[in-house]
Automatic annotation (TrEMBL):
GO molecular function: GTP binding; GTPase activity; ribosomal small subunit binding; small ribosomal subunit rRNA binding
This protein's name: GTPase Era
Membrane topology: Peripheral membrane protein
PANTHER family in alphabetical order: GTPASE ERA (PTHR42698), GTPASE ERA, MITOCHONDRIAL (PTHR42698:SF1)
Organism listed in the record: Rhodosalinus sediminis
GO annotation, biological process: ribosomal small subunit assembly
Name of a matching Pfam family: KH_2
Segments of this protein annotated with the region G3: 59-62
Keyword terms of this UniProt record: Cell membrane, Cytoplasm, GTP-binding, Membrane, Nucleotide-binding, Ribosome biogenesis, RNA-binding, rRNA-binding
Primary localisation category: cytoplasm
Length: 301
């Protein structure tokens, strides 16, 4: 069987319905969390499976109205995410139409999308009359050469299947990017890995900033509502292991404690976090592989 896999970037103004749509396409579990994650830093919203295709929805955090410096960096990352994707979906709210915010996106869409196909999804069609929809579709299609236009209601589910099927067909042929049993909590794993990486970087005072990666290898839901998370901090050399461990393991203890606290705070639930250190000399290759997928775990910027 030929499999397909790739990345789809969802862009749109705040409130356009990106989370609700992801929810619909991916399954209920991740959405609650990814919605929160979306406002911060994770780059994957969720993974959908449609027939033999795997569609990875890439996040575009804080795409609009940058206020602080950090936000500007996030905006750049957001557009970067769109540029790395195989296909871009622009979500526009049916009842709001061509707002200044949508104008702003359209102005940069060509530059960002390059030769990648861009689909238009007019969302919240349950809020307007059919006549209004046709007018809006025409207005928007006059402004940009969309590969397809979908009329959807992410909330009610109308048109979502069509969109997902189309996206699946747009994915390049290739092996699936994530094992099926991991996709439900992938955004959680990534978030947890990013937090630990950040704590390690802070703690190590730039000693090994570009030379460690963090992976959440196991995420286990417990009956009592807590989760057990097993992570590995990978370093490039044997000698680096001691630096991360610290005297009598004090450094890694401090790192995992800080990471656990932030993760618990963020998710509002109890987390049992176990962090190990391992050597992986070829991690640079891995970092490159992730970069090709539009991800950046290396922190090397
Ligand atoms: N009536 C209607 N409401 C919708 C539809 N899709 C989303 N909404 C609502 O629109 C609001 C925003 O939806 P979200 O999915 O959170 O939007 P978002 O684009 O992820 O928002 P940000 O994360 O702030 O960028 C929520 O109250 C949704 O319930 C739809 O098809 N119809």
């Amino acid at each position: 069987m030929t499999t397909r896999a790739g990345f789809a970037a969802l862009i749109g103004e705040p409130n356009a319905g990106k989370s609700t749509l992801t929810n619909r396409m991916v399954g209920a579990k991740v959405s609650i969390v990814t919605h929160k994650v979306q406002t911060t830093r994770a780059r994957i919203r969720g993974v959908a499976i449609e027939g033999d295709a795997q569609i990875v929805f890439v996040d575009t955090p804080g795409l609009f109205a940058p206020r602080r410096r950090l936000d500007r960096a996030m905006v750049a990352a957001a557009w970067g995410g769109a540029a790395d994707a195989d296909v871009v979906v622009l979500l526009v709210e049916a009842h709001r139409g061509l707002t200044p915010g949508v104008e702003e996106i359209l102005a940069r869409l060509e530059e960002v999308a390059g030769d990648r196909p861009v689909a238009l999804a007019i969302n919240k069609i349950d809020r307007v009359k059919a006549e209004a929809l046709l007018g809006l579709s025409k207005t928007l299609n006059d402004r940009f050469d969309f590969a397809r236009t979908f009329m959807i209601s992410a909330e009610k589910g109308h048109g979502v299947e069509d969109l997902r099927r189309w996206l699946a067909g747009m994915m390049p042929e290739g092996p699936w990017l994530y094992p099926e049993d991991q996709i439900a909590d992938l955004p959680l794993r990534m978030l947890a890995a990013e937090i630990t990486r950040e704590k390690a970087t802070l703690r190590l005072h730039q000693e090994l900033p570009y030379q460690l990666t963090v992976e959440s290898e196991n995420w286990e839901e417990r009956k009592d509502g807590a989760a057990r998370v097993d992570q590995v901090i990978y370093v490039a050399r044997e000698g680096h292991k001691g630096i991360v461990l610290g005297h009598r393991g004090e450094t890694i203890k401090a790192i995992s404690q800080a990471a656990r606290e932030e993760l618990e705070d963020f998710l509002g639930r109890k987390i049992h976090l176990f962090v190990q250190v391992k050597v992986r000399e070829r991690w640079m290759d891995e970092a490159e592989r992730y970069a090709q997928m539009g991800l950046d775990f290396s922190g090397g910027g």
